[in-house]
Amino acid sequence: MDQAQQANVKALEFLAISRQFRLGSLPTESPHPKTLLLSEDAKHNLNRAIETIQNIDLDVFIRLRDSLDELKILKDEIKTTIEGGGRVFLCGCGATGRLSLALETIWREQYKEDLNLRDRIISFMAGGDVALIHSVEKFEDFPEFGERQLLELGFKEGDMLISCTEGGETPFVIGATEAALAVSSRSPFFLYCNPDDILIQTAERSKRVIENLQIKKINLTVGPMALTGSTRMQATTILMYATGLCLWFYDLEFSEIEKELSLITTYVREMDLGFLKRFIECESELYRNGEYLFYETDGKLGISILTDTTERSPTFSLYPFENQNDLEKNPSLSYLLFPNSPDNNSAWHDLLGRSPRCFHWSEVTDQTSVERLMGFDFSNQLTLSRPKYLSAAHSNFTIMFDDKKNAINFSLKENTHQLLLGKLNFLSTHLILKIVLNNLSTLVMGRMDRYESNLMTWVRASNNKLVDRAVRYVDTLLRQKGVVVSYDDLVKACFRLKDQIPRDQSLVLTMVREFSS
Length: 517
What we know:
Layout: H1 3-17, H2 38-44, H3 46-64, H4 68-83, E1 88-92, H5 94-110, H6 115-118, E2 121-125, H7 143-152, E3 160-165, H8 171-183, E4 189-192, H9 196-202, H10 204-210, E5 216-219, H11 234-248, H12 255-270, H13 276-288, E6 292-296, H14 302-316, E7 334-337, H15 344-352, H16 370-373, H17 382-389, E8 394-402, E9 407-412, E10 415-420, H18 426-447, H19 464-480, H20 487-498, H21 507-516
Parallel strand pairs: 1-2, 1-3, 3-4, 4-5, 6-7, 6-8
Antiparallel strand pairs: 8-9, 9-10
Helix pairs in contact: 1-20, 2-3, 2-18, 3-11, 3-12, 3-18, 4-11, 5-11, 5-14, 7-8, 9-10, 11-18, 13-18, 14-18, 19-20, 19-21, 20-21
């Protein structure tokens, strides 16, 4: 069977199940009415673009107030689990998987002197810790993989699972959730960001979870993302903060959660992000000139910086961090750098606060193995190895936490800024850094023409959900040109082209050109 025939078979396999992945009706997949000019503003009115995204981020924290009663239940369950000797597992895919790992890292930093509490939070994402760098293709489409990862990590009676899925329909997360229900008498929690009625009509797997009274649900619907479908932004922010607050304050009065939420809401409303304009202009100009960046940091903030830089790859069809063990390397525009970590073992430990969790399922892929993970080297050795295969210049974008001033210091070329955090705690620090970096990276990519209006025209179709998303975007752009093509024909073209074109080219725009020529 040649490549074209294989692509057609895959397309037909997808079409047979496509009803379960046609998610265009979900709010998290819908265009935000406030950002229709986002691509133009990124290039011609940065101040307005920054303010627009900031205001949408503010809505997240205002929205969270509506779920305080549910958060109290989650907090109390965490307290009961930990005091009863159990462990709390955190689960997600892609962006929600990275938020799960980030929360464990923040927890381990908080309790680094308490060996008993430090290991009571265990996080995992589809594909294991390697997926921090780039998602393992199609892994999230299989519920049995979620179950298998959970059980291989030792989940048992008395443990508790908190599952996060921004869409509310991810098969991997649903598989883990249902497995947890079968193993432990402690009900799993399922957090998501789309309305129940729409999810029930859209995906049978979501309906099964929503209607299961033994699974405790927290619906955190926040509406459309600032960049259409980019759930790494507002949806992941609300999921991370809701879960993080309940972990951080698990043994304190619930009023402490209310106080911190009030603090960060006021902070996001009043913070001046005008300083980002200089950094956005500088970073995008460096890339246009063919240069590369090291995002330089350490274990304090590294997990949130890694998350933003790696999530740029599938969102904007950028090459992910290259693996140092590969003979042929397609370099990423930016790479994480821990200058104070002398080797890769220490760099990964500094990042996670623990040893990496990997596995090798021979029947699936070797992309999840520890050997693969260790090829992603962001220790200070990277400054020696990367210039050997990259003749282009590198600049350092330094982002460091200042303990004494409770501040984040930013430095890129001649641009510097100190973001004072006031009375915000370390969890809230990571949330502020997340929304700052989401704003920065989205607008850098806008200046590089990686989306049109607020539509992700460079999205990479790496799983079933993203295949549907890419096809929907092609359909939207074709209809704007007066061209109508059937969903089935678009899917077949998507599978035919997506493995042919280079990773750093736009599948959506390639399809639009083909059907409109």
